[in-house]
Amino acid sequence: MQKINNEPNFGVNEVLCEALRYMQNNPSNNGAIILQVHNKNELLPIFCTYENKYIQYGDKLHNLSSSSVLDNVNGIDKVVMKGLYKKFYDKDSKFRKELYKLTPRSCPICDAEWGYASHTLDHILPESKYPQFAVTPLNLVPTCYRCNHSKSTTVGTQENQGVINPYFNYINLSKYLSCKIYVKSSDLVTNIFLKSESELDITHLQYQKLKFFYEEVYKLNESYSEIARISVLNSMIDTLAKFNQTFSKSDMIVYFKSIADTQELSENERISTEFLKSLLLHSLLEMDDQVYMVLIDLINEKRTQAKEFKENF
Questions:
Q1: Which of 23, 28, 160, 197 has its CA 20 to 30 A from that of 256?
Q2: CA 202 to chain centre
Q3: Has residue 310 been placed in a domain?
Q4: Domain final residue pick, 120, 151, 182
Q5: Does the pLDDT value for residue 240 go beyond 80?
Q6: 187-194 and 177-184 beta bridge pairing
């Protein structure tokens, strides 16, 4: 998980001022309550106070999430706040575009590169529970579709769960992950999992927060395991199927070791497919006979399916 180096160059005040200008020129039922609160001089001060509170808690947002669930903000229903977000952070919004610029390369949560993954905005504190932060820029993190929808409305409310926000937090996931490959229902399963707490130089509280973030909030164990199986392992099987030979288990391990030796497993890098490949290779070096036999079956199956196609367009 990467830290977003720069904070948004605008605050909730700018978003609401633009919304007010629009509503004054385009009256509507939903906008009426917002204008009413504004006319009492209670709109901008309230939301700016909430924004300052958000900044104050920063890397300890669980203290905020545990006590700030609301149905409305000073009479403004959460449905109205959701509509405000949709209108002023829509796909063509200048505010959305500015936030996207903060993560130009990849999703800060899972490291999936843009182009292979699509941009979304994730409410760290869900708008359905915390409407007071529905349009607060620091509560809106550019993440990929998968991370956003895996998280949904899950949020930590206890100290041992925490709330991870890339504007305030950083986790070097690469040093905490390991891989296990095993057989299930005559197929291979890759499991990219957190190392045990005893293997890591972190506190018990940190481990609990890490586990909640990795497995419960964004379900990265599922995402990375799927990528390792479908993309990485299948690619290895495709390559092995091209060799005109039958591999013994020792031959296969020698082959995997030759690749692993060319890939340094760094504990300070993004979780890319190459990193997952390194983890998988180290697991394959210790494969048991059952894994080996299924690998052979998959390689032979791939060879049987292999067929040359002539171009036709």
A1: 197
A2: 22
A3: no
A4: 151
A5: yes
A6: antiparallel
